[in-house]
Amino acid sequence: MLVASTMRKISAKRHIAKTITWRIIGTLDTIVLSWIITGNPLMGLKIGFTEVITKMILYYLHERMWLRLPISESRKRHIFKTLTWRLVGTTDTVILSWIISGNPLTGFKIGLVEVVTKMILYYLHERTWYKINFGFNKKITS
């Protein structure tokens, strides 16, 4: 919920749309990074496509959690949201990469590089969605 004198009700459709768009961006990033780090395009595809389901569920839950926090819409909110999502997302990627590759070092390498690329991409994704009105219901004035 937005904290301000004029609040907008946010529909679940908005969070579903954000989940899908972010997953496309995130999956492409993971596939490319996994391919580069392992040297194996098939490994990149396996890691990228395996995390589609776990990441979509985790991202949706993250969105719904942030909806309930009384932090006003601002660049600081987007930065904090970026950091918390990155912690969840990187943990998921490290674990899945480790399991799929069978090598813990591979999982940690992919996770380490991904921290940087995904934080930049996620921040840009959040700023873009901040400017889009899709999924906002009528304004509620207090």
Descriptive overview:
This protein is mostly helical and 142 residues long. Helix 3 runs antiparallel to helix 4. The longest helix is centred in the middle third of the chain and has 28 residues. It is elongated and about 50 Å long. The N terminus is likely disordered.
Tell me the distance between the termini: 13 Å
Q: How confident is the prediction overall: mean pLDDT?
A: 86
Characterize the overall form: elongated
Number of helices: 4
Q: What order do the SSEs take from the amino end to the carboxyl end, as H and E?
A: EHHHHE
Class by alpha and beta content: mainly alpha
Strand order of the largest sheet: 1-2
The main pleated sheet reads as:
2 strands, antiparallel
Strand content: 5-15%
How much helix, percentage-wise, in residues?
Answer: over 70%
Query: Cα-atom Rg, whole angstroms?
Result: 16 Å
Low-confidence stretches: 1-6
Total strand count, please?
2
Provide key terms for this protein.
142 residues, mainly alpha, two-stranded antiparallel sheet, 2 strands, elongated, disordered N terminus
List the helices and strands and how they pair.
Layout: E1 6-10, H1 12-38, H2 41-68, H3 75-101, H4 104-130, E2 136-141
Antiparallel strand pairs: 1-2
